[in-house]
Design brief:
It is a single chain. The protein is an alpha/beta fold. The strands form 5 sheets. Strands 3, 4, 8, 9, 10, 11, 14, 17, 18, 19, 20, 21 and 22 form a 13-stranded mixed beta sheet that branches. A hairpin with a 6-residue loop joins β12 and β13 (about 300). Bound molecules: adenosine-5'-triphosphate. Adenosine-5'-triphosphate (ATP) binds near residues 223, 225, 228 and 469. Adenosine-5'-triphosphate binds next to α8 and β16. This is P-loop containing nucleoside triphosphate hydrolase protein.
Length: about 850
């Protein structure tokens, strides 16, 4: 099947790699300011502005039952506005209570519309799991009211101390301990991830596609294989990549429905929730907050990226994983230091013109998509709307419980990890106890962010599969036993997940469909009026505007159509690479004329986005203030809506940047790379110079001190010699003492030195001045006259004194000399 141009999809470039263009920097600044203001408002609650976005209202409406919702900026545009009015790529959801276990502050408006909606017609061969076609399970999601609990035993070189078969595990009796038998749904071994996925996750992925909230999580001691099971590696993809492949495979096999997929990725680190899809600086400045409880639980601000292909999912996952906190610990080289949650919101509904039910696989059997509604499932029907089914698939990689470590940071993280896992354990324990004894004891969900976030699912509103990983070696027996006890407890938790289909006229899918219809209608009207004879008298300017408006309408219709994913839009012959990666990607095989046209079209789109940015900015500035004493619920709503609006602005900015086109972006990246290398080299050079200069200063200082000291000694000696000379005892010779000091002869040290120099010179031995070879001082110092510093003291050993016998002083003479010296020495 070939993909019509209108259905080719856009692989969203990883935003991380995008550098903000200068043209958008002012807007980014505005966004940053607004974000900061939102954060400030959250704490100070001084100045509030009225809402712009509707989504949070929609989410809270179920709680407040209020209909007085302020409009989004896009809603405010009057009906007589030109058709070319730039629109928010996506508009936030509103309206009905979501059946999802926890609802995020929808961030779909951040996404370029053409990146956002998918339908099974847009799926490509590479997006679809082959296995799903042959091996689509029937409506078997395991025991619907029980948690599916499996154990994965990590392969080890050491002897295993656990004795197990396919469903039973117990400690090896040879260990001499009383061994307890544990029974689970599956006990898995080995390094193959495919059988693990099939056994523990596949049924729950299908359940999610069929409208049930599903949660799959990995629990276990650090380094026991949770991340390996959830994410895997190139060779052994784990549950997450396999699940996403099955999601697209399911859509491919379901021609009766159309789908919209939104992904979010978050982590709980040291009891703070961070959006892994947001730029790290932003997610650090604005941690995700949990608002509300139960089915109206809201996480905000949290990005949701709409995905239309496996490639898109991969990009989202890579970006999120790049932002995850891992560190090397005593037990795991790359240990997850946080709990991570990857979520896919699946919206789907009947396709127009198709009969309800009856989805057929190639083998002809009925598939989960068409199974009769689950008894007791909620199926709301309201006037004038189509039933939209919304479910959430949550894939959770918990951080591993661990022993104390010597590293301070790791200890702190470990404390938080262990505390939240303990809370999870006690929550599960209470739930199991309540289920077993029909009790209603208080469940401490609020004791940790993890349990608070999982509250709706753990309370039963989801199909849950838990995979507990253990290390079978002897030194991990305590941890493995604790993991098995946790697994045993969670097995007793009672579930009552229900499929919920609601008439959600505000579901994104529905909104897009409606918007497409409206746009088409407007296009028809414009075409008709353009053909009317009266219109032919339009001025050139008006005609230009008119054609621009029609082009914009067409472009928007195309964009929206691309976003809806149906089995018919799948092109099985094309690989991912065949897709356009940007709406304005330049094809250099085009003729110059075609390229010009492309350029013009791109410029027009950029213009319209610029206008949209302006209108959003204006709307932001124009919003009325909320009184400081407004009720908290209003403030909460406002904060959620403000962050929505900021996100809308960001996505428009991103679209603006994307429209610069891939080639331009490449050039920009190359130039940036080249310059950043140059800057790095310069910085290195500068560092070296600074180090050399420091060394120079140190040497100078050292030399100065030596010189000062020597100069002092020289002066003292000179004074001594002068005094000695002045005593006129040159005619006396002192008897050689034990130490035989080199006493100067008559005429003073100066004369001895001069004589000594002369004799050395006559022998061809010049005294080299004493100086450090690599001293930076050398070129600056001219030694005009020798100083004591330059004396080679060794040479003095050669000095000999000729003392004629008759001139040897008598003891009393010597005493007199020393007395005189003593008297005259300076103190
Ligand atoms: N079943 C398995 N087969 C082969 N290798 C495995 C298996 N399970 C785990 N490993 C390897 O063991 C190491 C630790 O595994 P992993 O990082 O998945 O542990 P973890 O439980 O997520 O740890 P943490 O809680 O510290 O993040 C990794 O190198 C991983 O590849």
């Amino acid at each position: 099947m070939s993909v019509p141009p209108t259905t080719s999809r856009i692989a969203r470039p990883t935003p991380r790699r995008l550098q903000p263009s200068s043209s958008s920097s002012s807007l980014n600044d505005a966004v940053t300011r607004l974000t900061a203001q939102s954060a400030l408002n959250a704490t100070n609650t001084k100045q509030y502005k009225a809402a712009l976005s509707t989504e949070a209202k929609a989410l809270t409406r179920t709680r407040t039952n209020s209909n007085s919702r302020p409009q989004t900026p896009s809603n405010k545009i009057p009906s007589d506005a030109p058709a070319s009015r730039p629109k928010t790529p996506t508009t936030p959801r509103k309206g009905v209570p979501s059946p999802v276990p926890f609802i995020s502050d929808m961030d779909i408006s951040r996404i370029e519309p053409e990146d956002a909606l998918v339908d099974c017609e847009t799926l490509e061969a590479s997006d679809v799991s082959i296995e799903i076609v042959e091996d689509m399970p029937l409506n078997n999601y395991g025991q619907e009211d029980k948690v599916l609990v499996s154990i994965r035993v990590k392969p080890t070189d050491q002897p295993s101390v656990w004795d197990h078969d396919r469903s039973r595990i117990k400690l090896d009796p040879f260990l001499g301990k009383a061994s307890q038998n544990f029974n689970f749904d599956e006990i898995l071994t080995g390094s193959e991830n495919k059988p693990v996925y099939n056994a523990v996750a596949r049924s729950h992925v299908y359940a999610a596609m069929d409208g049930f909230n599903s949660v799959i999580f990995a629990y276990g001691q650090t380094a026991s294989g949770k991340t390996f099971t959830l994410s895997g590696d190139e060779e052994q993809p784990g549950i997450i990549p396999r699940a996403m492949k099955d999601v697209f495979g399911y859509i491919k096999q379901t021609p009766t429905r159309e789908y919209l997929l939104r992904c979010s990725y978050l982590e709980i680190y040291n009891e703070n929730i961070h959006d892994l899809l947001a730029p790290p600086s932003m997610s650090a400045a604005q941690p995700v907050q949990i608002h509300g409880t139960g089915p109206s639980l809201v996480l905000a601000p949290l990005r949701e990226e709409v995905v239309t292909s496996l490639k898109g999912v991969k990009e989202v996952l890579e970006r999120g994983e790049g932002n995850r906190r891992t560190a090397s610990t005593d037990w795991n080289e790359r240990s997850s230091r946080s709990h991570s949650v990857f979520r896919v919101v699946i919206e789907s509904r009947e396709r127009t013109g198709t009969r309800e039910g009856g989805r057929q696989t190639p083998s002809g059997r009925q598939t989960p998509g068409t199974r009769p509604p689950t008894p007791g499932s909620t199926r709301l029907q309201a006037k004038g709307g189509k039933a939209v089914q919304t479910s959430v698939l949550s894939l959770i990689d918990l951080a591993g419980s661990e022993k104390a470590t010597s590293d301070k940071d790791r200890t702190r993280e470990g404390k938080y990890i262990n505390t939240s896992l303990l809370t999870l354990g006690s929550v599960i324990g209470t739930l199991a106890e309540n289920a077993a004894k029909g009790k209603q004891d208080h469940v401490p969900f609020r004791n940790s962010k993890l349990t608070r976030m999982l509250q709706p699912s753990l309370s039963g509103d989801a199909r849950i599969s838990v995979i507990c990983t253990i290390n079978p070696s002897k030194d991990a027996v305590v941890e493995s036993t604790s993991t098995l006890l946790f697994a045993q407890r969670i097995k007793r938790v009672q579930l009552h997940a229900q499929k919920k289909e609601v008439v959600d006229t505000e579901a994104l899918l529905e909104r897009y469909r409606k918007e497409i219809e409206e746009l088409k209608q407007r296009l028809v009207e414009r075409e008709q009026s353009a053909e009317a004879p009266l219109k032919r008298r339009l001025s050139a300017r008006e005609q230009l505007d008119e054609s621009k408006a029609m082009r914009d309408l067409n472009a928007r219709i195309k964009q929206l159509t691309k976003l809806i994913l149906t089995s018919q839009t799948v092109d099985e012959t094309k690989g991912d690479e065949s897709r356009s990666v940007s709406p304005v990607k330049v094809d250099f095989d085009l003729t110059p004329y075609q390229l010009q046209q492309e350029l013009l079209a791109a410029r027009r789109q950029i213009d319209s986005q610029a206008t949209q940015i302006l209108s959003l900015e204006e709307a932001l500035l124009a919003r009325p203030a909320l009184p400081p004493n407004a009720p908290d619920s209003e403030k909460d709503k406002l904060l959620i809506e403000q962050s929505k609006t900021i996100q809308e602005l960001e996505i428009v900015v991103k679209g603006y940047e994307d429209n610069l086109g891939e080639p331009l972006r490449k050039v920009k990246e190359d130039v940036e790379k080249e310059w950043s290398e140059k800057v790095e080299n310069e910085a290195k050079l500068r560092e070296e110079k600074v180090a050399w200069a420091d060394e120079l200063v140190r040497q100078l200082e050292k030399e100065r001190r030596i010189r000062l000291k020597l100069e002092e000694e020289r002066r003292a000696l000179a004074a001594f010699v002068q005094k000695f000379d002045s005593l006129s005892i040159g005619s006396l010779a002192l008897p050689p003492s034990k130490l035989r000091p080199p006493m100067p002869s008559a005429g003073g040290a100066g004369a001895i030195f001069a004589e000594r120099q002369r004799s050395r010179e006559s022998l061809g031995m010049t005294m080299a001045p004493v100086m450090e070879v690599d001293s930076p001082m050398r070129p600056m110092i001219s030694l005009s006259e020798p100083s004591l510093l330059e004396e080679q003291w060794d040479a003095l050993e050669d000095v000999s004194f000729e003392i004629p016998f008759e001139k040897v002083a008598k003891p009393h003479q010597v005493k007199a000399v020393f007395r005189k010296i003593k008297e005259n020495l300076p103190i």
